[in-house]
């Protein structure tokens, strides 16, 4: 019963529990494009709801690209949703725009809603890459200006809000500049970009789609990186790509991403953890990147049960004995230092 659309590919997503329903916001693009790689320049943000994280009902789309010229006139990409103390919901998302001939510049905007169904974009962008700390397209070392995937969460001490951002440092080897970008806000509307929460040179060209989560009672940082986007040195160790997990003693960091462990191989991508209200257990979902033969799939798994067994984080399917036709269960492990 994995979530998929017959006429569209589905990939990056983010989850929200409003206390009554679970919400799934996801990127999708028509299969009529024929080439799965073309989906990135046609992405819209869809929306589905569920009572159990298994059976999903699609509802009205959340966001589509703006008319040009705009920071999001190519596509709307990955984000997150949080609730303001005044009751409004804020969706932070990536805006993508193209510059000739086809380079992609990313920046961050937000939209608000009172019911999670109808979203109104604020003027944007509210954050862009700043050359004081972050690589720009003009540096000509990467295929795009990476500044995307805003993950927003409240400060643990009640001091405003933090945002983690997929970004690249303005120094270091070209294939090893991936960092945890960082911004802070007092009110969700006004944002101050800050220096990264990790250093370049830790093995990744980019760290995609962050999540801070408490998994089976222990805090972790989640990010995603495929082998092709890892550094040459990391690839030389034989490491594959997929979903990465870093046990961490505190948020908002700093983070030693070099010690992150691979949780799944690259058959799954953009992993997300969420607490299951009915069972009290931590569940894990991801999108199916390929079928084992290299063919892109583009749908979202049923939930896995996530559980620590000593210093090993295990994932066990919860629906049947597999999550996709032809895709066997993944029993994955992430081993590393336990948070103190």
UniProtKB/TrEMBL annotation:
Residues 21-225 form the Glycosyl hydrolase family 32 N-terminal domain. GO terms for biological process: carbohydrate metabolic process. One of its GO terms (molecular function) is beta-fructofuranosidase activity. Gene3D superfamilies: Glycosyl hydrolase domain, family 43. Belongs to the glycosyl hydrolase 32 family. Its EC number is 3.2.1.26. Keywords: Glycosidase, Hydrolase. This is beta-fructofuranosidase. It comes from the Bacteria. It holds the Pfam family Glyco_hydro_32N.
């Amino acid at each position: 019963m994995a979530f998929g659309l017959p006429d569209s590919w589905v990939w990056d997503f983010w989850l929200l529990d409003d206390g009554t329903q679970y919400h799934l916001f996801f990127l999708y693009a028509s299969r009529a494009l024929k080439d799965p790689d073309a989906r990135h320049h046609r992405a819209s943000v869809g929306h589905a709801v569920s009572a159990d994280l298994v059976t999903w009902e699609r509802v009205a789309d959340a966001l589509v690209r703006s008319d040009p010229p705009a920071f999001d006139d190519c596509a709307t990409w990955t984000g997150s949703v949080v609730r303001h103390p005044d009751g409004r919901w804020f969706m932070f998302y990536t805006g993508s725009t193209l510059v000739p001939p086809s380079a992609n510049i990313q920046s961050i905007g937000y939209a608000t809603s009172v019911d999670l169904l109808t979203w109104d974009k604020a003027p944007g962008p509210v954050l862009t890459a700043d050359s004081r700390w972050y690589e720009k397209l003009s540096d000509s070392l990467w295929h795009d200006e990476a500044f995307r995937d805003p993950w927003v969460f409240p400060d643990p001490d009640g001091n405003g809000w933090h945002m983690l951002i997929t970004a690249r440092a303005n120094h270091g080897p070209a294939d090893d500049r991936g960092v945890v970008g960082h911004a802070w806000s007092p009110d969700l509307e006004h944002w101050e970009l800050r220096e990264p929460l990790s250093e370049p040179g830790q093995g990744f060209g980019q760290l995609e789609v962050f999540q801070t989560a408490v998994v089976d009672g222990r805090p972790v940082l989640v990010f995603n990186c495929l082998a092709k986007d890892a550094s040459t040195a990391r690839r030389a160790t034989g490491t594959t790509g997929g979903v990465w997990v870093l046990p961490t003693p505190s948020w908002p960091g700093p983070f030693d991403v070099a010690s992150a462990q691979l949780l799944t191989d690259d058959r799954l991508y953009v992993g997300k953890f969420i607490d299951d209200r009915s069972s009290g257990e931590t569940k894990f979902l991801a999108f199916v990147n390929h079928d084992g033969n290299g063919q892109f799939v583009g749908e979202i798994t049923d939930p896995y049960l996530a559980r620590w067994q000593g210093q090993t984080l295990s994932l066990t399917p919860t629906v049947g004995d597999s999550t996709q036709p032809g895709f066997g269960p993944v029993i994955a492990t992430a081993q590393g230092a336990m948070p103190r």
